[in-house]
Write a structure and sequence with these properties.
GO molecular function, one term: ATP binding
Helix content: 25-40%
Number of helices: 3
Structural class: alpha+beta
Order of helices and strands: HEEHH
Keywords: ATP-binding, Nucleotide-binding
Number of strands: 2
Protein name: ATP-binding protein
Number of domains: 1
Distance between the termini: 50 Å
Radius of gyration: 18 Å
Organism: Oceanithermus profundus
Strand order of the largest sheet: 1-2
Length: 62
């Protein structure tokens, strides 16, 4: 992040996981972007989990 202004470099140190700073020549200021899926999920269907009561019981063997 050396190319960023000092304030943005400081902010980059405290960004939450999954957030990056995007810097494009066409955009006059850096933009913080957040990736909505876990790193291993390349499709929306891979990021969806069944969190129903029945799925939990099945997972726990109840």
């Amino acid at each position: 992040y050396r190319y960023l202004p000092g304030a943005f470099r400081d902010r980059a140190l405290i960004l939450p996981q999954g957030t990056m700073i995007l810097h494009q020549p066409e955009v006059p200021v850096p933009i913080a972007v957040q990736f909505p899926y876990p790193a291993w999920a390349t499709k929306a269907s891979e990021a969806v989990e069944d969190v129903s009561d029945q799925a939990l019981k099945d997972e726990l063997g109840l």
